[in-house]
UniProtKB/TrEMBL annotation:
One of its GO terms (molecular function) is acyltransferase activity, transferring groups other than amino-acyl groups. InterPro entries: Acyl_CoA_acyltransferase, GNAT_dom, MshD_Acetyltransferase. Residues 5-159 form the N-acetyltransferase domain. This is GCN5-related N-acetyltransferase. It comes from the Bacteria.
Length: 159
């Protein structure tokens, strides 16, 4: 059984831990495809640089990092305000199914209450455990078809 969880903002000291866990996430069944390692570094730099569009949290149990979450923010006319997208939630396998995900979702709702109009997330169809959790805490399925188009290479991030 796990100890008390601490959810804290990601810090510069977390770079290597975040990158290792992010690689594990993108090589898991929770996502449809892997991404280049350069994306992990760029994302970390954007977050640590204080971007208003991205944020991240680290989960600690007994002073050990056991997971992370990545958030992004956008404005939506449809939602009538700021939208928080839970981009990634990764918990080390040995700490999964112990309530950390549920605790993080409660944290997000409490922390951003009054600041965001809507919280969104995506889940891979076969990730039944996560889907069940999200429905249990009040998320509902939307019937939009999600599309995307890759654009030309983005300029490297500048600090």
């Amino acid at each position: 059984m796990r100890g008390h969880v601490i959810i804290r903002k990601i810090e510069a000291k977390d770079r290597n831990t975040y990158i290792v866990m992010s690689r594990q996430f993108y090589r898991s069944d929770a996502v449809l495809h892997d991404i280049p390692d350069a994306h992990f570094h760029k994302t970390f730099d954007v977050i640590i640089g204080g971007s208003p569009y991205a944020d991240a949290y680290i989960f600690e149990v007994e002073q050990q990092v056991v997971g992370y979450a990545l958030l992004s923010f956008t404005y939506s006319n449809e939602a009538g305000g700021l939208v928080l997208l839970i981009e990634e939630v990764y918990i080390l396998p040995e700490y999964q199914k112990q309530g950390l995900g549920k605790e993080f979702l409660a944290f997000v709702e409490a922390h951003y209450r009054g600041d965001v109009a809507l919280i969104r997330l995506e889940v891979e169809k076969s990730n039944k455990v996560a889907l069940q959790l999200y429905k249990k805490v009040g998320f509902t399925k939307v019937d939009y078809i999600q599309l995307y188009k890759k654009t030309a290479k983005v300029k490297p991030h500048r600090e």
